Amino acid sequence: MKSERRGGKSFRNMAAKIAAIPMVVTATVVFLGCSIWTIVYSFTGSRLLPKLKWVGLDQYERLWGSRRWLISIENLAIYGILALTLSLLIGFMLAALLDQKIRFENTFRSILLYPFALSFIVTGLVWQWILNPEFGVQNIVRSLGFENFTFDPLYDANIVIYGILIAALWQSTGLVMCLMLAGLRSIDEDIWKASRVDGIPAWKTYLFIVIPMMRPVFITTLVIITSGIIKLYDLVVAQTGGGPGLASEVPAKYVYDMMFLSQNLGQGFAASTMMLVAVVVIIIPWAYLEFGGKKHG
């Protein structure tokens, strides 16, 4: 009887594996094939069309000697650090509040998650209007009598990246909240009861008990947020187009401009390869923490 059950279970698993083969093969061929193709042609002098004209590391030397590329890396670093920190902090705080079984929880959860359903282009256009000094926040506040009030981050080269950050947090924080809320709901209620009996403050329970138990959730959330940070493009194009000047330039926009506007495929391939390296640097530690740690354990 047991052998029959095992055989049936193995058959079901085998059927699922066979059904997944086309998807796995397609994803592997497309991802690996395109990635290898891009890396190979990043060592060529391709311009309008791909050509196997080897130039060695010239494209990478030109890339890292480009002021525009260095500015895009600096902008992405500022944006990335703030977006990662604030989205985790705000998302966790919202999740902790909703976890208190408040009234109309489903309504609040839907409202907070709604921005994530919008595309980045729509979000960028909405916040471009909100932050426009002519008819946005600045104009509304001035109409209330505060004539000297100034708030035009998208038109100030020194703070334009923070204007983009505001839109990004508005859209992504809801997703982080849902992930964190799912993690909090997985915590055994007995832990909270024991902490209350022992008189442990709620903040200590979160900091020393709950958050360490939510490690897998935090790791997954970090990977999702970081991958979104690296490929930042839509918000920048919709809000500023990379301006003023190069103040909001980012690597993904650099790649697009090199490949389709400047018709310099080799340089675009080199820049996209560096972005791929950044993603790999994130994925490998995540894979080790998720799978390697469990295996060793």
Architecture overview:
Keywords: Cell membrane, Membrane, Transmembrane, Transmembrane helix, Transport. One of its GO terms (biological process) is transmembrane transport. This is Lactose transport system permease protein LacF. One of its GO terms (cellular component) is plasma membrane. Its main location: membrane. With 297 residues, this protein is mainly alpha-helical. It has one domain: MetI-like (MetI-like fold, Orthogonal Bundle), CATH 1.10.3720. The chain is 73% helix and 0% strand. The protein is built from 13 helices and no strands. Helix 7 packs antiparallel against helix 10. The longest helix has 40 residues. It is globular.
Remind me, CATH topology?
MetI-like fold
How does the overall form come out from the CA principal axes? globular
The class by helix and strand makeup works out as mainly alpha
Query: What is the assigned CATH homologous superfamily?
Result: MetI-like
How many E strands?
0
List the defining traits of the structure above.
globular; mainly alpha; MetI-like fold; Lactose transport system permease protein LacF; 297 residues
What are the SSEs and their pairings?
Blueprint: H1 2-41, H2 58-64, H3 67-98, H4 105-113, H5 120-130, H6 137-143, H7 160-185, H8 189-197, H9 202-213, H10 215-230, H11 234-239, H12 251-261, H13 265-296
Helix pairs in contact: 1-13, 2-13, 3-7, 3-10, 5-7, 7-10, 10-13, 12-13
